[in-house]
Amino acid sequence: MRHVSVRELRNATAGVVDSVSSGQTVVLTSNGREIAELRPLTPSRPRFVPASVLALAVGAPWSDDPDLLSDLADARDATLDDAADA
């Protein structure tokens, strides 16, 4: 892990950013004390997956139960108050 002082970061920002962009983690120091870690971001996963992608991933389990999609739609629209009334 590379250690870079605040002064070096100020004077050679592009080089430090290039190091991080290439996958290296850099520890930022001030007066010899570690104060921060610069590391590449991990790719984020999409928050929502289209139904067509989900169907491919799980093998479309609802094909065996034609009422499952309707039940899931009802559950999606339900509230906690609905559960208490049941």
Largest sheet: 3 strands, mixed
- What general outline do the C-alpha atoms trace? elongated
- First and last CA, distance: 58 Å
CATH level-4 homologous superfamily of the largest domain: YefM-like domain
Short overview:
With 86 residues, the chain is of the alpha+beta class. It is built from 5 helices and 3 strands; from the N terminus they run βααββααα.
Can you give a write-up of this model?
The structure is a single chain. The chain has 86 residues and is of the alpha+beta class. It folds into two domains: 2-38, 3-Layer(aba) Sandwich (YefM-like fold), CATH 3.40.1620; 51-85, no CATH class. It contains five helices and three strands. The chain has a three-stranded mixed sheet. A hairpin with a 2-residue loop joins strand 2 and strand 3 (33-38). The longest helix has 10 residues, at 68-77. It starts with a strand and ends with a helix. The mean pLDDT is 82.
